[in-house]
Amino acid sequence: MTDSLDPRVNRLRLDNIDAPFTIEEGENWQAYEVFHQEKRGAHHEHVGCVHAPDPQMALIFAKEQFGRRKKCVNLWVVRSADILAFGLEDEDMFANNMEKTYRDASGFKVMEKINKFKGKP
Amino acid sequence: MENLIKELVTKMADDALILGHRNSEWTGLGPVMEEDIAFSSMAQDKIGHAWALYRMLQDMEGGQDPDQFAFLRPASEYKCCHLTEMPIGTYEFSLMRHFLFDHAETVRYSSLLESSFLPLRQLAQKVKGELKYHTLHADAWIIQLGKGGAESHEKMQAALDSCFPLAAGIFEPGPDDGGLSDVYPGEKVLQERWMENIYPVLTKAALNLPGEVTPAYGGRYGQHTPYLHALLEEMGEVFRQDPAAAW
Amino acid sequence: MYGGGYIFEEPKRQPLSAQTPDDPEKLAAFEKRIANGEKIEPGDWMPAEYRRQLIRLIEQHAHSEIIGALPEGTWITRAPGFKRKLALIAKVQDEIGHGQLLYNAAETLGKSREAMINDLLSGKSKYSNVFNYPAETWADVTVIGFLIDAAAIVNQVANAKGSYGPYCRALERICYEESFHLKQGHDAFIELATGTPAQKAMLQDALNRWWQPIMHFFGPPDKASNHSEKLMQWKVKMASNDDMRNQFLDTYVPKIWELGLTLPDPLLKKNPETGKWEYSDPDWDLFFEVIKGNGPCNKERLDVRKWAEENGRWIRKALMRPEEMKRQTAPVA
Predict the structure, then answer these.
(1) Given a contact as 3+ CB pairs under 8 Å, which chains touch C?
(2) So where are chain C's domains?
């Protein structure tokens, strides 16, 4: 092949690269979900994932992929396969259709009662 | 005294620049994306350390602009060790070099935490965390690949065999040695501490240190391999088009 | 960075209606969700065609990032001075990081990273055409960093408002980093534009060479098709090629002209009545030739990627844990 403009590429010697090449399933290991803590005391928040062979390497990789730019004081990694979640069809479980104002601060009219007691309109 | 400190700072800066430059060549070509990113960050860290050291030199008597000094000196004025000059070669070579070099940096900067020379003491405090990550990363790879099956072990052993004599050259007794006991403990002591740190990791990785080796000396006195000349030619190619211009 | 505006039409596609035997009730609920501005998440029901188009889109975007690292990588060992050197390494690193985020997003749709990389290496899956051109001088790096990244931002900001959650989240982070790239590219561009006569000439030369690929960047002119309409309705395609191109020209042509530089198109001007930019049609035959693989750097770009994958194989395999592979291995979000 002709010379590359990139001196790095010229040093790679790409002459024998024509044979087809495929990577095998699993060569990029497995996925770990990454949780990022911005400052001490804050929640760890999900920011993405890394592919790694084990949890230790996942942390090492996550540190640079998710901690290099944004402020970060700590990271968690957990295997994606170990995450359990509800499905979309379960969304109705989360709907608050019934009257449940007893769970809200607005459900309790404290000032109204005090004002009534004090005889104000 | 100040001249000896300049020798020390120059060789540290040149080591960090040249190896950072080499390792940055892997950016975009690494074995897997996650590792590509991690290795690139550490290359940037090294170049950043070099920049800080060149600025330290600039603040000393007769100091020069860091860009001019780092990019335009003749090769004979560089004080880097031969380990840093070698081409990136294979990934196992680059990983092993990174492992041996960053452990050397770690013992050097740890000793500088108690240096009588304030700028180095302050810098040592700043780079501590970065170096901790570098050795964590390096140790994990060396151990995992050392134990990653016969082919992998063989490659790592070969990489250690070729890197080790070069790495011994990091500790070449230089012109600065001996007269700086308040500034840092000297190369001999650093080399002993370095051996104490790398040995247990290599043991875990089931890798054997080569027996008698001839350390690759000369770098601290400005004698270099042809690879450095080519590297400098390339690194300064754009800058030299007009060294007076802003880029 | 990314561009291309859904240009890689497959030659003999069936009409959408013929290949989507989707449950009409589910489809209606899905479309209502999107119309309401809700996001679709990985475990959700989605039409097969939506999944297929998204995989194609995100995968091409991911490939564009890791291939896009190569033209600028050309100058990584030669960047002049510490600031430029560090900024360029960090930028090329970010492109790899973007690829990583995007492959993960695409994996949530059911195609593995390995399969996507294989499709890139075999040429089955495409990447943005613009990266098949060489970066001949240092000035090319500044043109890419300023203008190609600017074009990519136009494209990505639009896509970030799309319907697929994981893609939008990846784009949010990517856009944040691209704005740093743009700033850094603009800074280096201005340095040359306001520098010595030789620097300015080098920049003008690079600009002349890159102008056509930049005009190609958003893809061929829009033609109304059902296909495109459906993708717009599903919020896979967020803006038309021409609209994005116009938006780019509107923001960036003045920034080029204000530096006393010229663009190699005598017809380029903004029509004061329509508010739209007018320009000579770039050579679209050339554009399709480059997509087919006949651009100046197609072979080198893929060869380098292949080299990296081939030489990295023993490392990846040494760390494989076969017993782990029986478990689900894709990201969940």
Answers:
(1) A, B
(2) 29-326
Instruction: For the domain covering C29-326, report its CATH number.
Output: 1.20.1260.10
With both helix axes pointing from N to C terminus, report the angle between B33-58 and B91-112 in degrees, rounded to the nearest 10: 40
- Rounded to whole angstroms, the Cα distance separating B148 from B150 reads 7
| Distance from chain centroid for Cα C136 | 21
Return the domain boundaries, chain A.
Answer: 28-91
DSSP state of C15: P
pLDDT digits (tens, 9 = 90+) for B16-59: 999 999 999 999 999 999 999 999 999 999 999 999 999 999 99
CATH class of the domain defined by A28-91? alpha beta
Is residue A56 less than 8 Å (CB to CB) from chain B? Answer: yes
- Interface contact flag, B34 A12, Cβ < 8 Å: no
Mutation pick from C36, C320, C326 vs chain A, by most beta carbons of A within 10 Å, is: C320
Q: Taking the C-alpha atoms of B18, B23, B27 and B33 in order, what is their torsion angle to the nearest 10 degrees?
A: -160
**CA C93 to each of CA B32, B163, C72, C214: distance values in angstroms, whole numbers, following the listed order:** 13, 27, 11, 23
Phi, psi dihedrals of residue C92, rounded to the nearest 5°: -60, -40
pTM passes above 0.90: yes
- Rounded to an integer, what distance in angstroms lies between the CA atom of residue A70 and that of residue C200? 35
- From the list A52, A54, A49, A51, the residue with the least C-alpha distance to A33 is A49
Instruction: List pLDDT tens digits, range C213-258.
Output: 999 999 998 775 556 788 999 999 999 999 999 999 999 999 999 9
- Which amino acid, residue B76? S
Tell me which H or E stretch contains C310.
helix C298-318
Contact A26 C325 (CB under 8 A): yes
Alpha helices (H) in B113-225, listed in sequence order:
118-146, 150-168, 187-204
Helix axes C298-318, B91-112, angle to 10 degrees: 70
H or E stretch covering A78? strand A74-79
Which of C240, C239, C243, C246 is closest to C278 using CA atoms?
Answer: C246
Residue B246 lies in a domain: no
Decide if B78 is inside a domain. Answer: yes
Q: Which strands form A74-79's sheet, in the order they lie side by side?
A: A44-52, A30-37, A74-79
Are the beta carbons of A60 and B87 separated by less than 8 Å? no
CA–CA distance, C22 with C45 (Å, rounded to integer)? 10
Q: Which helix (H) or strand (E) holds C184?
A: helix C165-193
- Which burial class, exposed, middle or buried, applies to B245 when counting CB atoms under 10 A from its CB (0-12, 13-18, 19+)? middle
To which residue do tokens 């990454």 refer?
A: A34
In sign, the C-alpha dihedral spanning C209, C211, C217, C223 is: negative
3-state DSSP assignment of residue A32: strand
Is the CB of B140 inside 8 Å of chain A's CB atoms? yes
